[in-house]
Amino acid sequence: AQQALSGVAMELGDCAFPLLREIVCTDNLSVGFKDVQAALLVGAKPRSKGMERGDLLQENAKIFIPQGRALNDYAHRDVRTLIVGNPANTNCLIAATHAKDLPKENFAAMTRLDHDRAVWQVAEKTGSPVPSVQKVVVWGNHSPTMFPDLTWATVNGRPALDLVGQDWYTKTFIPRVQKRGAEIIEARGLSSAASAGNAALAHMRSWLLGHTHDWVSFGGWSNGNQYGVPEGLYYSFPVTIQNKQWSIVNGLNITPEQRQRMTHTANELLEERKAIESLLKV
Ligand code: LMR
Question: Nearest 5°: CA angle at 76, between 230 and 229?
């Protein structure tokens, strides 16, 4: 992978990010994670055509144990870690568990990509500018069980559901967002790349610089007290972010239909957790 890494380094440099000072290419975890304040864990075996994320659970789990330990041992104590590699939510659980001295809240699984996909679907359907679409929510797992929810979404302040219609919402929007990753793999023969990279940057930017002007979906630690989601999962919630702390949007009224979809995706995460239980022993 070192050869490919040198190409990644070239591209990173060529982005000319204003804060970029130096690039260190290494396969040594103690060097790579030293004093890191923002970690993006993108390295996972990618899903190929016909594969579901669950197939990758065991294999990828082994990558995230040493990375979690390395974060624990070498990273800055305030590090924020985003897990992008699939199955992201469960990989996040593994990494966070093995970073035993770091707060669970400082780890997140990326569902910003699903959030942005949902926003785009609504913007395109209504012919509206992207920033006019607000209060979109993605609940649960970054997998086809996720629940992209437009209950509170607005377009230029008007209820999105009134504009797009219930039929399009349930028959087109929900399944399209749920399966967008597979749709891209089908078209490209490869997993999403540019949109995933963009979502990772957007996620980190929101986390570090704040996100109070709108809700954003965030695969965060569930403490068991929010919206009936079982404790000890990385589950996507609607959040706002201030001073590098994310808070779940409170007080949303959940209908039985929403509850059913939210539970369905939580159950999948419980199953994934059960499948890698032995890897959670620290
Ligand atoms: C995506 O949502 O585009 C990816 O997570 C798909 C995948 O499994 O690689």
Answer: 5
For residue 38, how far is its CA from the centre of ligand 1 (angstroms)?
22
Q: What does the pLDDT read at residue 47? A: 64
Note the pTM of the prediction, 2 decimals.
0.95
| pLDDT < 70 positions in the chain | 46-49, 51-55
- What residue ranges line ligand 1, CB within 6 angstroms? 46-47, 53, 86, 113, 181, 184, 191-192, 196
Residue nearest to atom 3 of ligand 1 (CA): 181
pLDDT in the model for residue 199: 98
Distance, CA 182 to ligand 1 centroid (Å)?
7
DSSP per-residue codes, 163-224: HH-HHHIIIIIHHHHHTHHHHHHHHHSS---HHHHHHHHHHHHHHHH-EEEEEEEEEEE--S
